[in-house]
Amino acid sequence: MTAQVTVSVHTGDEVGDHVFEAPVTCEVGRSDACGIRIPERHRSVSRRHCRLDIDPPRLRVRDLGSSYGTFVNDGRLGRLTEQPLADGDEIRIGDVRLRITVTLSPDREPDGGRAPFDPLASFVPPEVPGYRLVRELGRGSQGVVHLARSLATGDLVALKQVPVTRHADDHARFALRRELESVRALRHRNIVEFRDSGDDHRAFYFASEYCPGGSLEEFSERHGGRVPVAEALCVVRQVLAGLSHAHRAELPALRQQDGAATLVHGLVHRDVKPANILLSGSGSDGRPVVKLADFGLAKAFERAGLSGHTRTGAMGGTIPFMARTQLIGYKYAGPEVDVWASAACLYWMLTGATPRDFPQYKDPVAVALREPVVPVRERDPSLPPRLAKVIDEALNDNPAITVRTADELTAALADF
User: Fold this and answer.
1) d(C-alpha 149, C-alpha 2), whole Å
2) What dotted CATH number matches 3-104?
3) Angle at CA 172, nearest 5°, toward 331 and 332?
4) Residues forming CATH 2.60.200.20 domain(s) in the chain
5) Domain with CATH 1.10.510.10 in the chain
6) Against a cut of 0.85, is the pTM above it?
7) What angle do CA 337, 50, 53 make, to 5 degrees?
8) Which residues pair with 260 in a beta bridge?
């Protein structure tokens, strides 16, 4: 650990500590969806009062339009404005106080540098038994992905390695295995097949089917940023087919007591976006086979407590492709949020824009919660009116999502 941020929540006679060791966004308020939840009796705290953007050792606080205001060291923040915080600062929201403690390890000097904390900066992916690394495919906030060859089968796989930023005890390993059992059991033509997993105490690895056609982002770029209607519909129908299977599948999950498996009904992706939609080969019609990737692997790693921070309800997903209802209640988001995100991907393929505009000077969370979806024909008036109506209805999430199942959206698109 290089740096640690502790948020101590004082609610009268009670004090609770939330410890963060890696980048995370965490909302504070009375809503069950907040990462730091304030008891309901504190009525002067809004349901979504403020947000902490934590990147140890740095952090910022942003007011989310609260009724009674957010105060930092007795100075009030403006509505929807943010302020950096430091060790010893105090946030007051209603009658609740949050005290900030920043702890640096001996090998890190508080030199005021501005380079963001990057847990992958010094991470050299180790060799994985049974695989030969071919080349790096990419790296993100959580891990490094290599093209690798299985020594047992000769197959090419996408091998993702995630550094372990805290001790992985037996309980954490079991929690990870429990989540992965369900992901492993998903078998569908339009879902990336999960092949293998393991760890060597420095990093966990996940081996999945390799999709040589790249992501939907690259597919869109090859079409100049706007995918023709027929091609876009071909893609989204396959995404919906994979989601329909996942949402209804009976899948095994391990029980803690004896390690035996019980059944769970359905998995929700919660992060359907162009980067998680991959292309692999061609079907009988000559068009690419579309596959949904990262079905639960990131969530499994975080739920097991191995991602380097305590995440007790933080927001998940990618905001431009996230339904408003998912932002409000992430823990309770059901299949309908995947359907909304699929419609958002179709909108994006056809127009080159996301359903909502996200100006650089505005908080994206506030935009998603307050701004309406732009009707798709305002982006591209040449789109067929009936198709535009289906897309606009599928992207209605105020106050609730209108089209709730993958099969409903598939049926609505059947005539096009």
Assistant:
1) 34
2) 2.60.200.20
3) 5
4) 3-104
5) 216-412
6) no
7) 80
8) none
Query: How would you classify the pairing of strands 36-37 and 24-29?
Result: parallel
Structure tokens at 66: 């609260």
Give the CATH number of domain 216-412; options: 1.10.150.120, 3.30.70.890, 1.10.510.10, 1.10.760.10.
1.10.510.10
Query: Domain 131-209: which topology?
Result: Phosphorylase Kinase; domain 1 (3.30.200)
For every one of its 416 residues, what pLDDT tens digit does the chain have, with 9 covering 90 and above? 467 899 999 987 677 889 888 888 888 999 887 889 999 999 999 988 999 988 888 888 988 888 889 999 978 988 777 888 988 999 999 999 999 998 875 544 444 444 444 555 556 778 899 999 999 888 765 678 899 999 999 999 999 888 765 555 566 666 667 667 778 889 999 999 999 988 776 778 889 999 999 999 999 999 999 999 999 999 999 999 999 999 999 877 656 556 666 677 788 898 899 989 999 977 777 788 999 998 765 555 555 445 443 333 344 557 899 999 888 876 678 899 999 999 999 999 999 999 999 887 777 888 888 899 999 999 999 999 999 999 999 999 988 899 999 999 999 999 89
Cα–chain center distance at 86 = 27
Classify the C-alpha dihedral 397-399-401-402 as positive or negative.
negative
Encoded tokens for 49: 């009062």
Instruction: Tell me the one-letter amino acid at 133.
Output: L
**Do the beta carbons of residue 243 and residue 269 sit within 8 Å?**
yes
Are residues 406 and 243 in contact, defined by beta-carbon separation less than 8 angstroms? Answer: yes
